[in-house]
Write a structure and sequence with these properties.
The chain is an alpha/beta fold. The chain is built from ten helices and ten strands. Helix 4 packs across helix 10 and helix 5 runs parallel beside helix 7. The longest helix has 26 residues. Bound molecules: adenosine-5'-triphosphate and magnesium ion. The site of magnesium ion has 4 residues, from helix 4.
């Protein structure tokens, strides 16, 4: 018997719905992005985000069910992101999911958004695509998180380390702002870096030897100092070279520490997920070795989406999780 799960995601600035079969087969996925709205403010404006979720949720659910050619009654469960994320945004998705579960008499599953990012790698890119296997090292790099996780089985996580200050995506966003590039900064830096020299500026790498943690604030400050100095000298900002040098510094540390962990824990695979895993320089660098097969979700599933929530929910459903209709949001919910 296969399981069909409809999931909602509204933890930040995307309103999303998806239907996934058996945690791997994506039947339909819709994402209503608020990116253009928040770009005006240079970042996510929480009140605007929750209001937009209220407006977009019903059309997004309708569209997804239409695409899947299924009705709510044909689902086995309704899943939703319970946290972490913006409280005002999470509450919209959770209440909508409760309504759908109640109306259809289907079980409700509250899912951790970070678990969702990891399970985006389970969605099959093509029908014969084999699932990831354990043990694996997962590098989770997103707007709010940078985590190195050892996964020995489904839903079993050992957090090795994480960022001590800025998340990788946050560093991309902040440095983009320093360089006068638009929000969101990750794709803008990647684009600018394509025409730049990654060795133009020698920027610091925080290796934090003896720990699996990361730190990006020193790198961000180094870019800030460089920008100020160049501006003081009245020179035009070499945006492409700065973007390429910054990106190379981030990628080198992320890949270096992930490979080190993969060797130390003798894993069979490496998994990279989260918004920053859309970065081509990172994807190429982690694949430029033959020791470990690498799993990275397709581009459309790196940033926030509901397919990943449905995929994680499948394995939670199999483990017996069923949540009561009075569960609450968990805005700071850690993965472990
Ligand atoms: N091509 C790219 N290169 C680098 N960074 C990128 C790229 N595309 C997106 N990002 C970054 O990914 C982040 C968004 O990812 P995601 O949607 O997973 O984050 P989030 O949901 O806001 O945070 P979290 O998942 O930690 O709660 C942003 O910081 C964005 O700049
Ligand atoms: Mg996310």
């Amino acid at each position: 018997m296969s399981t069909r799960i409809l999931a909602l995601e509204s933890s930040c600035d995307e309103t999303a719905c998806a239907v996934v079969i058996d945690g791997r087969r994506l039947l339909a996925s819709s994402v209503a992005s608020q990116m253009e709205i928040h770009a005006r403010y240079g970042g996510v404006f929480p009140e605007v985000a929750s209001r937009q979720h209220v407006l977009s949720l019903v059309p997004v659910v309708r569209q997804t069910l239409q695409k899947a050619r299924l009705s709510l009654d044909e689902m086995d469960a309704i899943a939703v992101t319970r946290g972490p994320g913006l409280a005002g945004s999470l509450v919209v998705g959770l209440n909508a999911a409760k309504g759908l579960a109640l109306a259809s008499s289907k079980p409700l599953l509250g899912i951790n958004h970070l678990e969702g990012h990891l399970y985006s790698a389970w969605i099959a890119a093509f029908p014969a695509d084999p699932p990831p296997y354990f043990p694996l090292i997962a590098l989770l790099v997103s707007g709010g998180h940078t985590e190195l996780i050892l996964m020995t089985d489904h839903l079993t996580y050992c957090r090795l380390g994480g960022t001590r200050d800025d998340a990788a995506g946050e560093a991309f966003d902040k440095v983009a702002r320093l360089l006068g590039l638009p929000y969101p900064g990750g794709p803008a830096i990647e684009q600018a870096a394509a025409g730049g020299d990654p060795q133009a500026f020698a920027l610091p790498r925080a290796w934090l030897k003896g720990s699996w943690d990361f730190s990006f604030s020193g790198l961000k400050t180094a870019v800030l100092r460089l920008v100020r100095q160049l501006e003081k000298e009245g020179k035009p900002l070499p945006v492409a070279d700065l973007a390429a040098s910054f990106q190379a510094a981030v990628v080198e540390v992320l890949v270096g520490k992930t490979l080190q962990a993969a060797r130390q824990f003798q894993v069979r695979q490496i998994l990279v997920a989260g918004g920053v895993s859309a970065n081509q320089a990172l994807r190429a660098a982690i694949r430029a070795q033959d020791d470990f097969p690498v799993r990275i979700p397709p581009l459309g599933l790196c940033t926030d989406n509901a397919a990943m929530i449905a995929a994680a929910a499948h394995f939670r459903y199999l483990s017996g999780q069923r949540d009561p209709l009075d569960i609450e949001i968990r805005p700071s919910w850690p993965l472990t």
